[in-house]
Design goal:
By secondary structure, the protein is an alpha/beta fold. Helices cover about 20% and strands about 25% of the residues. A 6-stranded mixed sheet has the order 2-5-10-13-15-16. The chain has a 4-stranded parallel sheet with strand order 1-4-9-12, with helices on one face. The protein has a 4-stranded parallel sheet with strand order 3-6-11-14, with no helix packed on it. β15 and β16 form a beta hairpin. α1 packs antiparallel against α2. The termini are far apart.
Length: about 160
């Protein structure tokens, strides 16, 4: 069987398994077998979805010590599937999503193709991330906008009462 076909079958199987296995360790094991790059000490909550095609490779890169809350959706490939009229008009978009080390992604966040969330940033629950987030940012909303810097939240910067 051709190598490409084996890759597709393996990805389909492990993507499915990643959704139903009960533990973080098992989920990450399955996602790595889909070809996604995931660093060390990463937590990925339940109902994590990566939207791409079975042929697309390298759609997700996660650094070390990243925490991803439940129901996060990463979109690496996006287009109006099988609608030739809309595809002709708006096309499809694709690009790897990168979540650098030490980021925290809140519940229900949606990240669009090609976006990088740079190191040590927080994305608030429910945000839709349409563009890169600079390092050390706190970003919220739809579309996600930076509202602060994590360094300002450091206890070292808290003034005494
Ligand atoms: C982003 C977050 C970390 C910000 O926390 P914070 O620094 O304590 O921020 P505050 O609560 O002081 O809110 C600051 C402002 O941002 C707004 N805000 C906070 N979180 C928001 C969110 N998720 N979406 C939209 N606006 C948000 C607040 O309403 C507030 O606005 P205001 O200044 O107009 O009143 C937090 O709200 C959040 O979303 N955490 C993720 C929670 C989660 O998903 N946990 C999953 C389990 S691990």
């Amino acid at each position: 069987m051709a190598h490409a076909t084996l890759y597709r079958i393996r990805k389909k199987l492990f993507k499915y398994l990643a959704r139903i296995v009960p533990t973080n360790g098992q989920r990450i094991w399955c996602l790595r077998r889909c070809g996604y790059e995931i660093g060390s000490a990463v937590y990925i909550g339940d109902s994590f979805i990566v939207t791409d095609t079975l042929e697309y490779r390298g759609g997700l890169v996660i650094g070390d010590e990243v925490a991803i809350a439940p129901r996060v959706t990463v979109i690496a490939v996006s287009g109006p599937t099988d609608n030739s009229r809309l595809i002709a008009l708006v096309g499809a978009k694709s690009g790897p999503v990168r979540i650098e080390s030490d980021c925290w992604i809140g519940a229900g966040v949606i990240i669009l193709p090609g976006v990088t969330i740079h190191e040590c940033s927080i994305v608030g629950a429910g945000a839709v991330v349409t563009a890169d987030i600079p390092p050390f940012s706190i970003a919220v909303g739809v579309p996600a906008r930076v509202i602060g810097n994590v360094n300002d939240r450091s206890p070292a910067n808290h003034s005494p009462i």
